[in-house]
Amino acid sequence: MYKNLVATVVAACFLSPAFSQSNDPPKVGFVYVAPITEAGWVRQHEEGRKAVEAALAGKVKTTYIENVPEGPDAERVIRDLAATGHKLIFTPSFGYMEPTLKVAKDFPDVKFESITGYKTAANVATANARYYEGRYLAGIAAGRMTKTHVAGYVAGFPIPEVLQGINAFTLGMRSVDPKAQVKVVWLNAWFDPPRERDAAMTLFNQDVDVIAFHTGSTAVMTAAQERGKMAVAYHSDMRKAGPDAQIVAVTHQWGDYYKRRTQALLDGKWASGSTWGGVKEGMIRVGDFGPKVPKAVQDEVLARQKDIASGKLKPFSGAIEDNEGKPVLAQGQAMTDEQILSMNFLVSGVQGKIAK
Fold it and tell me: Considering 108, 205, 279, 326, which has the largest number of Cβ atoms within 10 A of its Cβ?
């Protein structure tokens, strides 16, 4: 099974022991949870890898392995990268966190970057982005564009990151359309295009005219295009998949972070730590508006993006109630990072419950 997971480009790098010699450029590995496609979560990390190669040409050798399931396969792949001379390994998926930590204990001289993980070690750093900032902005666009006041949301797993996104999107939408409701369908999967599509179609049959998603493919965008509905792209600009459907995209920008951390390795200055950057740091960007979006709406969204970057606008500020009517945050207060990172509720306006 493992042989089927290894990209051809990686396999070639494992054939010669010469790559482990000290006079060769250090090897930097990337492990991807899904196949590399034109758009999506993995595409953005692949763009980050390419940015490293372009910026540090001749100084490092990058390799990648795609379509590696979370769990035992992930540990085996990460371990093989470490054992074959990779000095820095990026593991961008939440379910890679524990396998990364386990392998790191056995390879203390290898540096690891657990992307979306939250546990560090002497040779394991973590990094994530404030995706919720982009979700809030996308909610503003959705709130301005909806005619039914009903949005859909196709969600992966009920981890805090996903709950942050659903809640921020809903709060952004209701900031301009107080009547807005958001209907959620849980998949308990990150990448399953047929089920992503089915979930979108189900939501479109329930008065949903604009949809968002936290899954790994373009299936929801394609479904929106087919049905003549509107959609918020996630991870990447998806106008190729939904030229008429896309109203805005929340994109993840990993290139600068990956370049900076790889350069730190080359300089002998790499150190463990945690990074959580958002709009201000350039890790999250909202834009790539579709043709249906009036300029006034585009200008409003971009203005609010500047407000988030400056700290003037905080998506999770009071008063906030959960969708069962329980107060969560008082008027005039803003959630702390600790509260955001441990989010375990759905805000008022969300129809549905947290998946078990």
Answer: 279
